[in-house]
Amino acid sequence: MLNPGYTTVSKFAIEQIPPGPHARDLAALLVDVAAVTKAISAAVGKGPLLGLSKLAGSKNVQGEEQKKLDVLADELFVRGTEWSGLVGALASEEMDDVQIVDGPGRLALVFDPLDGSSNLDVNVAVGSIFSVLELPEGARDLKAVLQPGSRQVAAGYAIYGPSTELVVTVGSGTHGFTLDREIGNYVLTKEDLRIPASTSEYAINAANRRFWEPPIFRYVEECKAGREGPRGRDFNTRWVASMVADVHRILMRGGIYMYPRDQKEAHREGRLRLMYEANPMAFLIEQAGGLASTGRSRIMEVEPESLHQRIPVIIGSSEEVERVARYHAEYDSGDDEPYTSPLFADRSLFINT
Ligand code: MN
Ligand code: MN
Description:
Order of helices and strands: HHEEHEEEEHEEEEEHEHEEHEEEHHH
Largest sheet: 8 strands, mixed
CATH topology of the largest domain: Fructose-1,6-Bisphosphatase, Chain A, domain 1
Helix content: 25-40%
CATH architecture of the largest domain: 2-Layer Sandwich
Radius of gyration: 21 Å
CATH class of the largest domain: Alpha Beta
Number of domains: 2
Strand order of the largest sheet: 4-3-5-6-7-8-9-10
Distance between the termini: 65 Å
Bound molecules: manganese (II) ion
Shape: globular
């Protein structure tokens, strides 16, 4: 039974956003973004019926093939927010450059309209990620948008899974809403999410193992050694390969998610994008008591240099992220003692038979 006093996104925004010159604009923008994600949720929910998971026949500026739903979701974000006079700049994964919006808007909305779109064909949860920044007075260009994540005034994502959820922070905790399709509203269902400090679940694409830097290798090998290893307990791997789905799981029950820098494409600083993937997720994770690191610094303190900049991402339960950051520091200073498995150290186990 629905609680008659349920909290919608607009009620939440009015109650939670701290007073300030742009508080009302931010509240209104969050309501618009929520409406955009309802439309994307409806389109995603059609599955193959509308053919939207097919390739659009175009590539974005980063050279990635766009699906029809990538393009549609991007347009829904633009058309759903540019009209209002609230935003002065829009930028997304699918755009070549920042889109300036004429008018009084002092907020910038940066977004990944559809995260995990390669998973559309297999009916696995996908999502939308967004970040809101305040533009400096009179500034309306790329430079005005390229602010570190610590300057975000709001961030969130929608996850289109068995149910659609919207997870939001405005800097006072991280809160989850569930879309009630019958009433057409998001309803607050998960107030003040808290990520446990320790965890026994880690998420990483292990196929890239041979490209990892030694600190990541050390951490994962120690997890895999389980009860017999230096960690003294067993771990499990979880990997959906959809950032929103993997981070959502961590927000709900803890864990660590790693998309580190690797040597596979040595010129790249990781795979995920700072402005519209790493920063908003870092804000949400930190507001829930977790940590978000590149391995060598706090993600939200990285000064962005370009719109589509990539960054290593290590986020989740605080004790685990601290441990991975410590392994990076020990490696960089030459103090590390990489774990070697007794199974492999004791070769007799395999050859003296
Ligand atoms: Mn993405
Ligand atoms: Mn995307």
